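Journal club prep — side note

Before the paper discussion, L.F. wants everyone to see what a predicted structure for a comparable chain looks like in token form. Sequence:
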Amino acid sequence: MVDDEESIRLALREYLMDQGYRVTTFSDAPTALQQLSQLFDSIVNNKSFVVPDAIVSDIRMPGSMDGLEFLKVIRANDKLVGIPFILLTAKGMTSDRIAGYKAGADAYLPKPFHPEELISILDNLIQRRETLNAENIAVDDLREEMNQIKKLVLERSGVYKNQAGNTMQKGASDNTAMYWSDVFLTTDEREVLQLLSKGMTNKDIAKEMKLSQRRIEQFLTSMFRKTNAINRTELLRWAIATRNVKI
């Protein structure tokens, strides 16, 4: 946790530790980055280390680096990009929240807030990250699950395949495009979805797109937030229903 107000750091540290969390606090972002750098340097020396499950940082801090700049550094680093990041903002500062989400924040909390709310967000983000990293799902099982989802969605939405093999909606001509969604996805996010629908793991997708696995995790986290999905299955169900993947 990073916050320049000592009273907040001490109070949250005590509360989180009472809830079973291991907490390390810092008064500024540069010191926190230095500690993270030392953690990853220990990999080279084969020493034990603990990568944080999440980072909580105030957005407005004095000095050369505020919380937003701290977040940008985290998201630009292939080794750190997948760590869930929660920003603490002043109440009513909509501009801070928008800037934070654009920089890759997973969640934000306006001050003052109740510690239980922070606990709820932390638990949700950590569970989501564990889901993202789950590599113990058999590819065949995932593919079978996706086939069942596709069939169910098609049946409920009145969608069928025409003679050319294209997905259509009943009552629509073959020249009618039936794609719709209020959620904006980037080109890379759409490609990740398409590969995910084929039953690929994060590692497989990263190899296919020639990106780091951490980067793929970031895309998935972003799509989870945009669609309110809590796991891969819900995300793909949404993607199929909104025609964001080809059936």
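L.F.'s comment for the group: The chain has two domains: 6-132, 139-241. Keep this in mind when we get to the figures.
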